[in-house]
Design brief:
InterPro entries: Cpo_RRM, Nucleotide-bd_a/b_plait_sf, RBD_domain_sf, RRM_dom
Pfam family, one: RRM_1
Protein name: RRM domain-containing protein
Main location: nucleus
Shape: elongated
Distance between the termini: 92 Å
Structural class: alpha+beta
Largest sheet: 6 strands, antiparallel
GO molecular function: RNA binding
CATH topology of the domain at 246-330: Alpha-Beta Plaits
CATH architecture of the domain at 246-330: 2-Layer Sandwich
CATH class of the domain at 246-330: Alpha Beta
Radius of gyration: 24 Å
Number of strands: 10
Strand content: 15-25%
Length: 331
């Protein structure tokens, strides 16, 4: 075929169109966010805590980069299940302060390609002695590796079949040592039908994470920064649900008079740090105040329980906000 023949030009045009189509399709499949504007002391755990509560979150990666002779700076790559999930997280966190004590804000944009996070080999999960149904897969808590300036976090979550979760009673759940971290979306689905079970799972996840990270060799150095980042991330995520400033006391509304104090207590005490609960009923409605020992604990409970329906409540899901005053000031 001659180089200048019409057939040659048609073939070249078709090849170019195919290449452009493939490139466009590859770009549409990108579901990883590129995060810049991070402070120099940013930690992998802080990046993980900021993004983990958003739907579709899969993994995060923190790297130190240096280009064109500029000073080294941290950047992040956060991968979601779908491009839509990535876009939703980008819109929600664009311009947020990563460090509440620093005026610098983060910048989010879609990465050029999806980031693959190396995963350590997993051990075979032990067989339950309680006759617990087998679980699908095994999740690992974030693993840290230091190779030069690279810090890696693997935060893929264990997926449970909903039938397996519903088959467990609360005492079995409390005694089980095999439950790993569940995605927030799974907990929200479970909370619609089994609020006490969902609350217990969330509380146990928190306790397991704290226990395992306490054994990590770097925990002593990271603890202060992680606690500050966790509180900032949770407050940022929960800010849309409350018009009042962050407070260690929660205000619970949209309750009917049929809701009992003991029923509420069983839900809120599943989260560590609960101090006391007070229920006020008047006419056919009721409100409650729940005090925790700090803002971080209160925010954790609010994020997991807001919208959950108490079985005896005929008004739908609870509405939880930060109280305008602490419990001590309400006496």
């Amino acid at each position: 075929m001659e180089a200048n023949s019409p057939a040659h030009h048609l073939t070249s045009a078709a090849s170019l169109e195919s290449l452009n189509s493939a490139t466009s399709q590859a770009e549409n499949n990108v579901r990883t966010l590129f995060v810049s504007g991070l402070p120099m002391d940013a930690k992998p755990r802080e990046l993980y805590l900021l993004f983990r509560s958003y739907p579709g979150y899969e993994s995060s990666l923190l790297k130190m980069t240096a280009k064109n002779g500029k000073s080294t700076s941290p950047v992040g790559f956060v991968t979601f299940a779908t491009r839509q999930d990535a876009d939703e997280a980008r819109k929600a966190l664009q311009g947020v302060r990563f460090d509440p004590e620093c005026a610098q804000t983060i910048r989010l944009e879609l990465a050029r390609s999806n980031t693959k996070v190396p995963r350590p080999k997993q051990a075979t999960p032990p067989t339950s002695q309680m006759g617990m149904l087998p679980v699908v897969g095994l999740q690992s808590l974030p693993q840290y590796a230091n190779a030069g300036h690279e810090l890696l976090v693997d935060s893929n979550h264990l997926l449970f079949e909903q039938q397996q979760l519903l088959a467990l009673t609360v005492p079995q759940l409390a005694a089980s040592q095999h439950l790993q971290m569940l995605p927030t979306s799974t907990l929200q689905q479970l909370a619609a039908t089994q609020p006490l079970l969902a609350a217990t799972i969330a509380a146990q996840q928190q306790q397991q994470a704290q226990a395992q990270f306490a054994q990590h060799a770097q925990f002593a150095q990271l603890q202060a920064a992680q606690n500050a980042a966790a509180q900032a991330a949770m407050i940022s995520s929960g800010a849309s649900t409350s018009s009042a400033p962050p407070c260690s006391t929660l205000f619970v509304a949209n309750l009917s008079a049929a809701v009992s104090e003991e029923e509420l207590r069983s839900l809120f005490k599943a989260f560590s740090g609960m101090v006391r609960l007070r229920l006020h009923a008047k006419g056919g409605s009721a409100v409650a105040f729940v005090e925790y020992n700090d803002i971080r604990a209160a925010t954790q409970a609010m994020m997991h329980l807001n919208g959950v329906t108490v079985p005896s409540n005929d008004r739908g899901g609870m509405r939880i906000e930060y109280a305008r005053n602490k419990m001590a000031d309400l006496s």
